[in-house]
Sequence to fold (516 residues):
Amino acid sequence: MGSSLRRLPAVGAVLSRPELILLLEQVPRELVVRAVQQAVAEARARLAAARDERAGDPAASRDGDADSDLLAGVAARAVALALRDASDSLRRVINATGIVLHTNLGRAVLPEEAVSAVTRAARGYSTLEYNLAAGRRGSRHDHLRELVKLVSGAEDGFAVNNNAGAVLLMLNTLAEGREVIVSRGELVEIGGSFRIPDIMRKSGATLVEVGTTNRTHPDDYRRAVSGRTALILKVHTSNYKIVGFAAEVPPAQLAAIGRDAGVPLLYDLGSGAIYDYGLDGLGGEPTLKEAVGTGAAVVTASGDKLLGGPQAGVVAGRADLLAEARRNPLARALRLDKLTIAALEATLRLYLRHAGDRRALAARLPVVGMITRTAAELRPAAEKLAAGVEAAAGRWCEVRLIEGASGAGGGAFPARDLPTWLVGVRHRALGAGRLAACLRTAATPVIARVEQDELLFDPRTLLPGEAELVAEALAAACLTEQGPGAPEEGDITPPEKDIAPLEEDTTPPEEVDSCA
Ligand SMILES: *Cc1c(COP(=O)(O)O)cnc(C)c1O
Fold:
């Protein structure tokens, strides 16, 4: 063993440093000890690597670090690790990407009404499965039934854990051991490993593919129907669009083909809009009512996409089929908890309350408000943000206003950009990736876009009060970075975790810039 490894501080020596003793007042001992062990192990690896390097070059000078520096360094690293482990893992962040339904950042921001409903349900007992009038057991499915019926126009409705669960439940209930016909143009992957062929296999149904990637015709479906057919499945291609020489069978026609053959249509709508975004010039996302109106026997949709509520899978459709689904043991496994029921009920009630007043709804429902904000409406917010950023960080950065685009995200409006105004920030010395990394270390981390070495902030997804926090975080990042002893680029350990910047992008990031 080389002499340098003998310089390695002992865990006990690190633990008796004053900064660690202080830390033990706030952080559980178990976490502190583990952090010290990790910091020591990291130092050991570093020393061993340095020794191996020197081995090839006997003339090389010995590592000049005094042992006390080494000890201080290990202690500082241990403190950082322990504080990280002691802080919440699920943290609030500021979404400055402009992607409204950013799956990695938690999709829909809930309306205030939903937040209060969750708090009420969490703080006390509730009628989750209790029928007050009768004084006996009730069903948790009853809370959402009338509301889902009203917003969708369907005969019956309920909700489960998410839309992937809703699709799985309906396929398993209605088609286990039998066949389901799907167009090859609709064998979608939604990300986070929701893929139609895989979910089909797990449901116990057999996938029957018809048509081609770009074109599927009514006769393709008609020819595929047999005595083994349980369902026709229509999947809304919510995160891509086939353009050019393309043809698909509209859901209403599919429902008619199914009726003629005595086969129900299951329509996986995905986004599940209740608000008609088409009236804002945003076409292509059918509402729940329109989907049910096509004659589909069952429609499923996400609660936290265009609907703007909590994570859930909304199921609307024929009463006999839904009753069968509720009796399926899978419905028990996929059931909603009381907090989600409270949030979803409150969100759906908002749609009813403001049915005749689009502006009032947009003001109360964050997702509707964010998606329908026009570039003209966003411009003053961008100007204000630019002015705040300029005042806070103009010493270090060039700030400009750019006409740009936001994405809806969350599998909605796939081929469509929402016009916006962006604030572009370029640091005169630091790369945009590095600056973005520093923003992610802010007390309330800020997630921004980086394009062509420029940091882009989109006011579309900023909530009230967040523009000020963005400016503050940027100033703090610039200040830390210019301070004495700021490490050189490349001289730093990679961040412990990172949020993939793009919707549903589950590929691991390659080299990520990190902050000091
Ligand atoms: C998003 C989506 C899903 C998955 O919904 P989750 O609520 O995320 O489980 C399934 N199908 C389609 C068409 C979608 O757009």
About this structure: The pocket of pyridoxal-5'-phosphate is lined by residues 162-164, 167, 190, 194, 235-236, 238, 268, 270-271, 302, 313, 411 (CB under 6 Å). The radius of gyration is 28 Å. The chain has 20 helices and 17 strands.
